[in-house]
Design goal:
The chain has eight helices and two strands; from the N terminus they run H-H-H-H-H-H-E-E-H-H. By secondary structure, the protein is mostly helical.
Amino acid sequence: MVFLKGHKVNIGKKHPQTDETRKKISKTLKGNIPWNKNKRGYTTKKKGYIMSEETKEKLRQANVGKKLSKEIRKKISLALKGKKQSTKERKMRSEIAKKGDQSIFWKGNKVSYGGLHYWIRKNLGKAKKCKNREKQIFDFKCNKKSKRFHWANADHKYNKNLIDWMSLCNSCHKLYDYKKHLSNIGSRYGSIKNKI
């Protein structure tokens, strides 16, 4: 088809259908079997569709770390307002709300390094002083210069035992780990390889 210069082509534009055209379309389609009839997982609402564990894991991995915007949160809260929760939902929420070893997310000593330190800060608070500075407990003195404090694990087994944790300044913490052959803190104190 040849178009003259300046001819406007209606590509991608929706043309409004008249009532007569709609009636004709509906008549021709009556009696036709839809392509997705009796096919599980192809319906619009996916009723009765069961996801495989592999698919669930893929979806979980894809959504890890994603945060909803404030606008979407507002929309969700407005949509849920006035809706009553079922007894099943209430039970689930109460299970999630449980703290400590009563929680369904409790991992015990299999917790990650970051998760463990978060748990320690939650239970013992922020580290504000150096135990070695107040009373010398190690074979080295505190330099009393560091203003940053950490929670250090005494036996380096990293178990959820609050007694095994002590508050140390940054320099004492590094030296303590170095003396126990746990870190290589660079040229100032020598290499960990030389220490062993």
